[in-house]
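Reading a protein record of the kind used here takes little practice once its layout is understood. Each number in the token line that follows is a code from a learned vocabulary of backbone shapes. One such record is shown here in full, so that the layout can be seen directly:
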Amino acid sequence: MRRIAWAEQEMPVLRQLRERFSKERPLEGIKMSACLHVTAETANLMRALQAGGADIVLAASNPLSTQDDVAAALVQYDEIPVYAIKGEDNATYYNHLKAALDHAPHITMDDGADLVSAVLKDRRELLPNLIGSTEETTTGVIRLRAMANQGVLEFPVIAVNDSQTKHLFDNRYGTGQSTLDGIIRATNVLIAGKTVVVAGYGWCSKGIAMRAHGLGANVIVTEIDSIKALEAAMDGFRVMPMVDAARIGDIFITATGDIHVLDGEDFAAMKDGAIVCNSGHFNVEIDIPALEKMAVEKKQPRQFIDQYVMADGRRINLLGEGRLINLASAEGHPSAVMDQSFANQALASEYLLTNKGKLENKVYALPVEVDQEIARLKLAAMGISIDILTEAQVTYLNSWEEGT
């Protein structure tokens, strides 16, 4: 409970929403199943939803992301069922998802679209009572848009990740800081002077590159999108194909949402002692089966490090089993940035209920007004004021007659 309370201090927007929810009870009578990283920040979201009247259960969205003490506290003090154990195997992970869906939810809350996928594939009996879902992460939104495009999505989903108060801050500042935190905790290596290769240049990768550079690293970015590659180059980073970067990198970080971003060709080119890790949602970005096949020996020099010894004696160090390094060996995003993300989640749940029966089976973003309100509350909590347009300025911006 002390860790949950400590996190809440840095979550003023969610705290205000919890206070409103406790008075208005907008989620009264609603069953919710959440599949999220079980952290102190998530605990505060669960408590806010419960204050709003929701009957909620929680499962982990990654086998290594659970903070066991937080899970236990939610069960003991808040009577919220939690299906999560740090280090659980795949079979246990999917059994926990099944248990969360046995709750027969009206709303699901996802971080990676696993609950939605399970409903559509295996639990179709839940569809008649399902109002909709909310999605936290980029990878999940990609999967959900694929479902919508193929016509298999059978209920509306709110893409929380599309909110500017989420991806511009959580993805960039949260992932940037927590990824480097995870690498340092797992390895205790000095980042300064190292060549850090960042795969991708979306918002998460931008944050990682920025923070690695801030710690003194020489940063290389690899990309498949010419516009993002150009942006990385103009931000001052070297840009090149991964196979070229593999020869000179010391630390490799993937954050693309795709498979085999690092593969056998890259492992064959890496120098002795290379560190590889992933900050994307699923553990598919690093081709671990290829690494296993190439290695003649596997060691564990430290917790969260699997060291693969190649036939020529080179050692490649895989962190956190290729899973989210910021949660595998660290504590995930700082509370201050999750405040905005989880405020979006809470309001997305309320939005689904308010608009029940009005939304199509599509992926939606929250209205801009909701985004602006979250930003306004955050600024107020930080003691920051901004300018307000005068009537003359509003008139000018809405007219076309006045020019030079």
